[in-house]
Design goal:
- It contains six helices and no strands.
- It is mostly helical and 187 residues long.
- Helix 3 crosses helix 5 and helix 5 packs antiparallel against helix 6.
- The relative contact order is 0.06.
- It comes from Acanthochromis polyacanthus.
- It is found in: Membrane.
Length: 187
């Protein structure tokens, strides 16, 4: 039970309690359907347009002006920085997925690494296909690593001028190809 202070009148707590009860019932919609409780909402301001009306106006205007639903990727002029950004994200997702799949396979599949290496050798795949497979593994690792270094260079606030962006982009592509070929030759 709440203790009243001597200077606090009792009707104040009753008023706040009744307000709380009415607010609770009004929020739940219990009182709003009864006419005797209309004093709770008679001062409510009428609402403007709803979100649905605004959306309908937006789509009607776009249809009238013959606008597309959303910009499609085909409206953009492709550039080296744009392609490198997309490729960097793609190689990151691909590498993390491949590493995760390899880890799960190492835990779940029977046998060990030399067993599966011998299995691949027994397939008698030609050296061209093996070289392409090695390049397919080495290039994403090399590209993502070198482009990550390029991003770190940007993080220190350098290399943002357009000629530098293109120059570092072509450098990353060239070095990625060279290091991938070197990795293939070593393996």
């Amino acid at each position: 039970m709440q203790v009243q202070s001597p200077e606090e009148p009792e009707h104040k707590s009753n008023t706040s309690f009744s307000s709380l009860v009415f607010r609770t019932f009004a929020r739940q919609g219990v009182c709003l359907s009864k006419p005797q409780y209309s004093f709770l909402y008679r001062h409510a301001a009428p609402m403007g347009t709803t979100a649905k009306d605004e959306m309908n106006k937006f789509w009607a205007k776009n249809a009238r002006l013959n606008r597309p639903m959303s910009p499609h990727i085909t409206i953009y002029q492709w550039s080296v920085p744009m392609m490198m950004s997309i490729t960097h994200r793609g190689t990151g997702v691909g590498l993390s997925g491949a590493i995760s799949a390899f880890a799960v396979a190492a835990l779940v599949l029977p046998g060990n690494y030399p067993y599966y290496l011998d299995l691949i050798h027994s397939l008698s795949i030609g050296p061209v296909l093996i070289g392409l497979a090695k390049f397919g593994i080495a290039f994403p690792v090399s590209y993502h690593t070198l482009n990550g270094i390029r991003h770190l260079y940007w993080d220190i606030g350098k290399g943002f001028k357009i000629p530098e962006v293109y120059r570092t982009g072509y450098t990353v592509i060239g070095l990625s190809i060279i290091t991938s070929i070197m990795a293939i030759a070593m393996i």
